[in-house]
Amino acid sequence: MREPQMCSVLCRITLDAKAAKQFQEKIDDEYRVNMILDNLPLVVPIRRLDQGSPTVYQLGYHVGLKGQYTGSKEEKIFIHNHLAFTVKYHRDPQTDSARIVGFEVKPYSIKHEYEGKWSENTRLTTCDPHTKHTVVNSNTPQEVEANKEIIFTYDVEYQESDVKWASRWDAYLLMSDDQIHWFSIVNSLMIVLFLSGMVAMIMLRTLYRDISKYNELETQEEAQEETGWKLVHGDVFRPPSNSDLLCVYVGTGIQFLGMVLVTMIFAVFGFLSPSNRGGLMTAMLLLWVFMGIFAGYASSRLYKMFKGTEWKKISLKTACLFPGIVFAIFFVLNALIWGQKSSGAVPFGTMFALVVMWFGISVPLVFVGGYIGFKKPAIEDPVKTNKIPRQIPEQAWYMNPIFSILIGGILPFGAVFIELFFILTSIWLNQFYYIFGFLFLVFIILLITCAEITIVLCYFQLCSEDYLWWWRSYLTSGSSALYLFLYATFYFFTKLEITKLVSGMLYFGYMLIASYAFFVLTGTIGFYACFWFTRLIYSSVKID
């Protein structure tokens, strides 16, 4: 610590043909080397050309670079074999001890030279601490070729810094483009205001029309329009087909919503700093497991309302369906990474721990929740359901279920679309994502948008005397997950340069899991919004 090094020779190697080829491939694919010192990742400071803008930090340095010699057209591949490290420290004036607050590197490519034969204490002529001769540029770079020797060297320089230890991460988490986020939030708020206006109009029309009991002022036409949703009062609470599956998905959605909300609140308060590697993932998994109790409760409450009797069956399905599908996709992806002998594969022990958490904590909790939910009295319908289902009249083309479901997903997706771009960039182009405040705002906007668009479309549907709203309310807002996946595909082809098959499969596998989770989350919000809305409007109806 605080002892500068100059031109320390690390090693001298001669590449064989295979190693040289591997180096060339890695440099061609722009691989980076990452290092960590005192939990700080290594960065390469890149000065922006325009004055006054802050320095940008690139995580890790490139293994090498491609270039041409002056006057030649042929592209050569050079390796970075000299690293000039800068360690920044903050000195405590009382004790004179110091703490590391920055870790930077400038990589150089230089063909080192020395006189005579190589031995332990050979002095390099290109870089010599005794003559204070250091590497300052890459004017005589080191090529990567078979049977050429490469000498690796490094410098360490210590710089005193005013940055306190507590705020040493700030440079990494620098927000460069606030405007875009505010723009995206304003854009989303416009959508929300527009939808809120529509919901308010519907509420006023339906509920106040009742109170004024058909004033004389109204024409025959308006009365005609009015009767649409009232006519189906005898069928609107008829249990849907596949009601078990709906209960399972609603329960899962509640589990997911709980997990996301609590994680976000923790993140906003700064408990999940990126210096704690993997903290976010661990927190989400633990919360998911413990939210199982709410999943069981929500699904069995709904199940009992649909006159279901076997709460154990529904609890088991809730505990296993969503995690089972996700785990299966994850397992296949992990097997692919294993096949590539990558160090990024999740080890078998961790996989086993995940299964233990799932079956040891999550499943029992779902059953506990299911038991509590089933013991409670069933939710009463505000109106009685007729014995014989009524016929649904011919629907206009725009009220076609598929069409209205697809339309419903556009607005929630539109509300989160810009933030999504930043999240994808930070996941796949390895940058830090640390704007949880914005994310939380966007998430709240997403919740409101999902709820409102579903209510609006559900109202139009009931007005045209189509009472099959249960699944449709779930799918209307859930269809935004389809747009999410399509956008991820678009992002893959326009922003990422992934050529390997396995890497592509990984990308689409993970985006599929993310879209599936998004579907469950948004669908549940839409469903509960509709559930509340229909109960509200039908409880105010006076049936003769």
TrEMBL record:
**Membrane topology recorded in Swiss-Prot or TrEMBL:** Multi-pass membrane protein
One of its GO biological process terms is: protein localization to membrane
Which InterPro entries does UniProt cross-reference here?
EMP70, MFS_trans_sf
Residues that span the membrane, as ranges: 182-204, 246-272, 278-298, 319-339, 351-374, 395-428, 434-462, 474-493, 505-533
| Protein name, UniProt field | Transmembrane 9 superfamily member
Q: Which UniProt keywords apply?
A: Endosome, Golgi apparatus, Membrane, Signal, Transmembrane, Transmembrane helix
- List localization entries: Endosome membrane; Golgi apparatus membrane
> Which family is annotated?
Belongs to the nonaspanin (TM9SF) (TC 9.A.2) family.
Q: Tell me the Pfam families matching this sequence.
A: EMP70
Keyword presence, Signal = yes
From which domain of life does this come? Eukaryota
Species this protein is from:
Gossypium raimondii (Peruvian cotton)
Any one of the GO CC terms: Golgi membrane
